[in-house]
Every structure is written in C-alpha cells, then in structure tokens.
Amino acid sequence: MAHFISPSRRVRDTPFTQGVEAAGVKAYTVYNRMLLPTVFENVEFDYHHLKAHVQVWDVSVERQVELNGPDAAKLMQLLTPRDLRKMQSDQCYYMPIVDNEGKMLNDPLAIKHSDTRWWISIADSDLLFWVKGLAYGLGLEVNVFEPDVSPLAVQGPKSDELMERVFGSSVRDIRFFRQKRLAFADTSFIVARSGYSKQGGFEIYVEDGQYGMALWDALFKAGEGLNVRPGCPNLIERIEGGLLSYGNDMTMENTPLECGLGKFCKPAEGLDHIGKEALDLEASKGSARQIRAISIHGAPLTPVRTSWPLMRNGLQVGQITSAAWSPDFGTNVSIGMVDAGHWEAGTELSVETPEGPREARIEEGFWI
Amino acid sequence: MAHFISPSRRVRDTPFTQGVEAAGVKAYTVYNRMLLPTVFENVEFDYHHLKAHVQVWDVSVERQVELNGPDAAKLMQLLTPRDLRKMQSDQCYYMPIVDNEGKMLNDPLAIKHSDTRWWISIADSDLLFWVKGLAYGLGLEVNVFEPDVSPLAVQGPKSDELMERVFGSSVRDIRFFRQKRLAFADTSFIVARSGYSKQGGFEIYVEDGQYGMALWDALFKAGEGLNVRPGCPNLIERIEGGLLSYGNDMTMENTPLECGLGKFCKPAEGLDHIGKEALDLEASKGSARQIRAISIHGAPLTPVRTSWPLMRNGLQVGQITSAAWSPDFGTNVSIGMVDAGHWEAGTELSVETPEGPREARIEEGFWI
Q1: Mind telling me how many Å the CA of B220 is from chain A's nearest CA?
Q2: pLDDT digits over A261-285, tens only?
Q3: Do A62 and A121 touch, CB atoms closer than 8 A?
Q4: CA angle A20–A22–A25, rounded 5-degree value
Q5: Does this complex have an ipTM over 0.95?
Q6: Contact: A4, B11; criterion CB under 8 Å
Q7: Which of A207, A238, A269 is the last residue of a domain?
C-alpha cells in the first residue's frame, strides 16, 4: 500500500522544487533531510526515456560539505583511503569515507577548489557532523560547513547537446570526472561530467539557490526539440549499471572492500588515513562478504524495502539490498551482499522475497 | 498536492512498522532515515483522541547513540552546556547539543545507565557522527554506536492505566523524566515517564527489535476498553504545548539561547563544554532572536513547508516555522523565531503565508 509524505520545513524543499512539482512529480524519497524526486511518469517510462533522450534531475540532496582553511587538505586525506596527493584542481574523485574501524560513513564525490578549499558532495548521511567533530577534536585550522550549493544533473545521451545550448560549446571539452567553471546569467557554476547514471551527462553545482529556477527554466527552454524531461536517479538503470546506493547496498556495517571499492583503498608509501589499520588487515585476510550483481528469476518483483535473505542449501549466505525488473534485460536485476565462499559467478542461490522464494544467480558483473 | 513516498531499504522500517501499517497509517515523514507515522485517521481526529484517551506511538526514529567506556561521562559533558554532574542514574535529561560556535546540532534526551554507559535519544540529525568524530579526534577511550533500541511511546491521559495493565502497578511510581527497568515477556525494558506530548505518558526503550510486535500487540490487547489507538506526534498538540522540533523550529543556524533553552545553559563553577565561550558571550550581549508562541488570525492554514516571513512595518523581523489550526483554541497556533526588538508579548505582526498575508500576535506563552 502506498503512503503519502507529510510536508514540513524539516524535510527541506530544494531551489528546484517549484519546477519539479509543476512538472508533475509523483513520488519522493527523503535524502539528507531533503526531498528527492523518485517518479515522474512511472519508473519504467522514466527509464526508457533516460536511455534515449535527456533528463534534468534535481539532485540538490547531494549536499556539499565545504572544508576551508590551512588544514583542509590534511583533513581531507585523513577522511579517505583514496590517495589524494596527485588530485588536480579540475578533478572529481569518488572516495569512500570510513571510520577508525574501516566502516563506511559515506561514499561522496570530492571536488578540489584548491589545497585550502574542498567540497565533498555527499551521499545519505550527515558527513558534516563527522568532519566537524574531527576538525574540533584534532584542533585543526579549518572551517567545515554546508554552503548554499544545490546540484542539478543533466543525464542521458543528448546531454552534451542540451548543455551546449545553455553553457556553450566548451562544455563538450570537459572530460569524465573533470570540472570547469562556466558562465550562467550574471554568475558562474562549476560543471562536472559526472552523475548517477551510466547514460552520460553533467552535474551543475548551483551556487546560491536563487538561481535555481532560472537554470531549470533555461534547460527546459533550450531542450525543446530534444524531448527533454524532468527525471531522477532511476532504480532500474542504476542497478543495471552497478551504481551502489549508500543506505541501501552498503551501510555503516560494511567496509569499502566488501563493497568492491578496493581500488580506492590501495596502501601507498607515506599515505595515512583514519581506518587504515582495519582496512589493511582486511586486505591481507580477505573480506567476509562482497557485493555482487545477482539476477533473480521469475516475474517482476516490487522494490526492496527490507533486505531479502539469500539462501543456499537452507543456510543464509547474504542478502539482496536493491532489486528491480529490467525491461531491457528481461530479468530482475539486483544488488546483494554475499558471504565468502558463495560469491563466485554462476553460483545458484535462492532469495526469500515478500512474494515467496525465487531462484537467483550470481552474475559476472553488472548489466553494462 | 500530495505526494507518495517511495519504499527503499535506505528509509528504514521499524520493529513496529507491521503493526503501524496494519492499523492503517495514512502518511509518513522520514526522521533519522527511518519512517515516522504522521497521520492515522486525520490530524484533527488524532489530536482529539490523544487529549481524551491513550495512544501507542512508533517513535523508533528516536535512535540511541550509546557512549560506552571509561571516558563516556567526560565526553557527555563536553557535548552539552547542561550540567550533568548531579544527574542520577534513573534520570532523563533534556539537553541541547551545540558545536564550538554554540549552534544547535541536536536536542536529545539523555539516559544515564552508569558513569561509563549512556544513551542519547536523538532528534533529527546524525549526532552519532559528531560524537564519533569527537571521540576519535580527542583520543577518548569510549565506544560510540547505535544500539538496537527502538522507543515505543504510550501517550494520553489514560497512559498510566494502560501501562499498568502491561508492566504492573510499579509503573505508576515512575516520576516525570525518571526511568525504571521493567519486565516484559522474558526480557526487560527501560521505561521512562516522558514523551513528545503534553498529555502525559511513557516511552519504552525496546531493546532488540524482535520484541517489537509482541509489545505492540500486548499494548493493544490490554487497551481494549480504554479506546487505545495508534498515534504519532501530533502537529497541533505539539505546537499548542510549545514542543520544539529540531529541523523545523530550530536548526544549526540557531543557538539554544535563541530557542528558549537558556535554563539548560547556565554557567557553573568548573563546568566546561564545547561552545561555552560562544554561549557565554551571547548570554552577556543578549540574543539576536528568540522563539515565540504566535497566534495567526483568520481561517485554518495548511502546514509550514518553507518558513513564512514575519513582517512589521514592511520589514522582515522573523519567520514562522510551524503552524496548525487549533480546534480547542480557535486560532492558528504557531512557533516563530522573532528578531530582538520585536518579540514582546502583544506585538502585532503580519505573516506572509502561501495563502496571502495574515495578521498575527505574539503571545505570552504557549497554549497550555
């Protein structure tokens, strides 16, 4: 049964909410205490459209944590196992953030403005509080706060075309996970080639919410003829693409190594960070579980609300954390955490879904 | 226009969700990344029933932050301006938690198990991350984590009667903001006389979610004849009673002195805490704004979604953060933050609501 969401100031609107609601958003989730659209037409329609055309997404919920001050770079490196020493100031880095036990606190994208000024574009946890606590406790000279920045994403195969119409042709020169500051009206925004889909596109870091609707309107006006539509991260497409969701597929119970993020946790000479000892130990011993792409056979399943047990020979060997019917692949695509000894590709398991037990198979990789 | 909420694992169910949904919950909000019911019959029906009978509330969203270890008491006192030195182990303390600039990070209730073990029952922010960051940064010997504890509240004038039927007559001896461990089935729970209404009642700290539905069912079975119903924090009743909501009426932009919490921030010999300097300075200079009870004239208003400007002689002098039509008081009751020089009781202001400008008046106090 479907339930309504009650309005309140505590669940924050975004600078684009007016446009999102005028466009007929049907459902929301709450992410970082802010509204995130989840459905416009319906999840399948939105999915097909995203893969064929171009969409504008209100992803303001990707709040920024700004680190500003002489110790900003030092604190940034303490936060993550990823080596930031060679990061250039036009790069975006995906980076796991872990506590002293190596457990995931967030999996954000970082933007480096300079050695003394960084943004962390966060997933769904109040990373601000962890960073503020560390800065205070360690006596570091750095201000940590949430600036007035709300990302708007443009995603889909026609993203370059739409973005060029608003920001000019230089937008096409931005490489993957790089960013550039581009003019808009009487201001400018950081524009990155990034986003939470595998269809290509950009994220525009809208500084000062007052510009929100002007940018929203400019994109839709420029997109006439491109079949531009409002959209949002799409459950089916992101599972097919193996885009993990913090809070769904990984939580504070998990380490980045369990989540397939080992390549961002390589030990390096002179590199120190919080949680290093725990991650090094896990790397040498091996992980107890790993995230896998898993196809679940049979008719389309409804979304995961509480994790579904993965069974083998009557014993639980893991859990499914996200699932959706994929029209393009003709199966239920899913993401699951599987115990050591059971995660080999081709392994046949069963899943206890709310609609009864289903046969499932561990895939070689995601559906890309 | 009303919107649906999309299900996902990231927006967590509670140990009582099964009961809540079987009872016909109509709407939710998300609080601490978990479902919090907001409406059963309708907000006015739920309000009248709460004031006359007894309700069972799923307030699992009041997650606990446990501090456990030799430095737990030291860290607890650093967190809050409230003097904890005389706190007894059966007491519950409401305590503002501020950062080093004296800004509110949360306004939880603390429970002291012993000098080395505390729970903080949190409002809507990941206080866990702040406390973990401090513990790490300061090198304290204390474990900080979220235990498997989900509060269930029993609220309303018949609360003592219902609770006695489940926990025995000793529940009546629990004084206001005191707690006692009482037996249930083959376990026991901490039961406190507390809760987010002014109608009296208890909060049961359910340890181990597996006991959730057994307790839920036991309360409804015992409440036959008492007109027990499922309920939830009620917007109208909590505004009438002046129960502030973190994220609505106060945010990280505010200090506890602005929020009328000065009595929990009294400087004392030998008392030190994070943010002391900022709060002492504000106490000596006076606050820039203050929370007030404000009645808004005219027809019933819809809930606040983004704050409504409070105007006086054409200038903005504050904002309304929560509002609801009160059937019992025949006016729109509201909570607002008002700038210095404009907050005297009796001051006439106007409010820019989504339904147009309305006349308003600052009240002596809340509607209790």
Answers
A1: 23
A2: 999 999 999 999 999 999 999 999 9
A3: yes
A4: 50
A5: yes
A6: no
A7: A238
Q: What is the pLDDT of residue A1?
A: 59
pLDDT at B356: 97
Q: Nearest C-alpha of chain B: how many angstroms from A232?
A: 13
State the Cα–Cα distance between residues A308 and A319, nearest whole angstrom.
5
**Number of CB pairs, chain A paired with chain B, less than 8 A apart:** 179
Q: Which residue of A has its CA nearest to B132?
A: A130
CB contact under 8 A, B136 and A4: no
Q: Please list every residue in chain A whose beta carbon sits closer than 8 Å to the beta carbon of residue B246.
A: 10
In this structure, is residue B3 part of a structural domain?
A: no
- Estimate to the nearest angstrom the gap between the alpha carbon of A298 and the chain centroid: 29
Its domain, for residue B74, covers 64-145
pLDDT of residue B1: 58
**Which tokens is A94 given?**
């995906």
Q: Tell me the mean pLDDT in the region A130-146.
A: 98
Judge whether residue A2 has pLDDT over 90.
no
Of B9, B28, B274, nearest to A304 by CB-CB distance is: B9
Instruction: Please choose, from the candidates B235, B240, B178, the residue with its C-alpha nearest in 3D space to the C-alpha of residue B203.
Output: B178
Residue of A nearest to B106 (CA): A129
Local structure of B237: helix, strand or coil: helix
Give the integer Cα–Cα distance in Å for A279 and B312: 58
Q: Which of B204, B238, B272 is the last residue of a domain?
A: B238
CA-nearest residue to A7 within chain B is B305
Give the separation between CA B111 and CA B72, rounded to whole angstroms. 12
Q: Out of A8, A125, A303, whose CB is closest to B129?
A: A125
pLDDT along chain B (368 residues), means of 10: 91 98 98 98 98 98 98 98 95 97 98 97 98 98 98 98 98 98 98 98 98 98 97 98 98 98 94 97 97 98 97 97 98 98 98 97 97
Please state, in angstroms and rounded to a whole number, the distance separating the CA atoms of residues B112 and B108: 13
* pLDDT exceeds cutoff 90 at A138: yes
Q: Give me the number of domains chain A comprises.
A: 3
Q: Which residue of B has its CA nearest to A245?
A: B10
Same domain, yes or no, for B253 and B329? yes
Inter-chain touch B7–A246, beta carbons under 8 Å: no
